[in-house]
Amino acid sequence: MEHVYKAALYLRLSKDDTATCGSIKKESNSIASQRDLVKRIFAIRFATCS
């Protein structure tokens, strides 16, 4: 029987994430780092399950 898992990313925003440059919102380094870290963890974890 095959198990199907669902996962979601949770990235915590800070005041830096609301900084704007003109009318364009910029992504902070902390959000980019969090996203990269979580994606790498998911890739490693779920690559070893198959």
- Order of strands across the widest beta sheet? 1-2
Using the alpha-carbon principal axes, give the shape. Answer: elongated
Main beta-sheet annotation: 2 strands, antiparallel
Beginning-to-end CA distance, first to last residue: 13 Å
User: Averaging pLDDT over every residue, what do you get?
Assistant: 77
Backbone CA Rg = 15 Å
Helix content: 25-40%
Class by SSE composition: mainly alpha
Low-confidence stretches: none
> What is the string of SSEs from the N terminus onward?
EEH
Number of strands: 2
Strand content: 5-15%
Number of helices: 1
Note down, in words, how this protein is organized.
- This protein is mainly α and 50 residues long.
- It has one helix spanning 29-47; strands spanning 20-21, 24-25.
- Strands 1-2 form a two-stranded antiparallel sheet.
- A hairpin with a 2-residue loop joins strand 1 and strand 2 (24-25).
- The chain is elongated and about 55 Å long.
- The two termini are 13 Å apart.
- The mean pLDDT is 77.
Could you give the topology of this structure?
Layout: E1 20-21, E2 24-25, H1 29-47
Antiparallel strand pairs: 1-2
